[in-house]
Amino acid sequence: MAITLTRLDPTGADRDALVEFMTRNEFPFHVRERWSAADVETAISDGAYRDEDNDSFWIDHSEFGRIGFLRLEDLSDEDPLFDLRLDGPFRGRGLGAQALDAATDHVFRTMPSVGRFEGQTREDNTAMRKTFVRCGWLKEAHYREGWPVDGGAPLASVAYGILRRDWESGQTTTFVWDDLVL
């Protein structure tokens, strides 16, 4: 695989690079689109990038170098979440699927108690939604008006998940959405 995850040290050696990455990029499909240096510094101090519930990694590509950032969240829970951010110049190249596969492999290979891995995105982030499906994840929820938007009406938050058994088998199990017949 062309992608590797390199664990970063947010309070030490990687602090400046993390601040620089987060402040020079815009993240139009995240709750906070733009970060200031003060915002990132506060998040670092609060443990948002590394504590008992969070861990962070650089996303490195064998040909392109450092292409993004991954944060694993809710690690004390049995169903962790993730935050994936590609560097602006590397978006729209299909690298998100490679990064998501690397994140999924990392979680299931290094966290034996995890049976389900989850991610969420806005309803209008079609690139990420297609990436989820391409990587064997299944849409599990559609939270109407669940994603706050600065200066606009809230959008739906769409949740996807992958089960360990699906990752192991390479087969996505599904379920019946409309199982309640009235």
Write a brief structural summary.
With 182 residues, the chain is α+β, with helices and mostly antiparallel strands. The chain is built from 5 helices and 7 strands.
Please give a structural write-up.
With 182 residues, this protein is an alpha+beta fold. It has a single domain, classed as Gcn5-related N-acetyltransferase (GNAT) (Aminopeptidase). The chain is built from five helices and seven strands. The chain has helices at 15-24, 37-45, 95-110, 126-134, 164-169, and strands at 3-7, 55-61, 65-73, 81-86, 116-122, 138-149, 152-163. The strands form two sheets. Strands 1-2-3-4 form a four-stranded antiparallel beta sheet, with helices on one face. Strands 5-7-6 form a three-stranded antiparallel beta sheet. The longest helix is centred in the middle third of the chain and has 16 residues, at 95-110.
